[in-house]
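This part of the workshop introduces the protein records we will be handling. The structure tokens are whole numbers drawn from a learned vocabulary of backbone shapes. The record below serves as our worked example for the rest of this section.

===
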Amino acid sequence: MITEADETLLRRAVAVAARAIDLGDAPYGSLLAGPDGGILAEAHNTVRRDDDITAHPELKLARWAARELAPDTAARTTMYTSCQPCGMCRGAIVRSGIGRVVYALSTDQLVALNPQSGAWPTVPEDGPALHEEARAPIEAYYRP
């Protein structure tokens, strides 16, 4: 359920996205709010500027949360973001321990506005393979 306080912070994330355009960057913005609702950090997309395909704001904030917040604090934070996080960012959000995400535009809505956003091809995958060889370093690390 999205509250009035959520809407206020979500509007701030959309404003961060709008400001990104003025800086020459793509229009995606996010912020991380602490347990008390205060803004802890903000970020916008800098993929083009940084020549870094991972420079999504959600990923930047997930990395920040993992480095800077205790796990119990991270679990009580909320990320507000202008668009639904992509698969890469969702994985980072889960690993960072962030407790909740609120987004403005869904992926389907974004693709309707910018069809290129949904033009990523599927990459073929093969595996698993070499189970016995691959498990040795994993077991050595986790079962000393």
About this structure: Residues 4-22 form the longest helix (19 residues). The helical segments are 4-22, 47-50, 57-68, 71-74, 87-96, 107-113, 131-142. The chain has a mean pLDDT of 96.
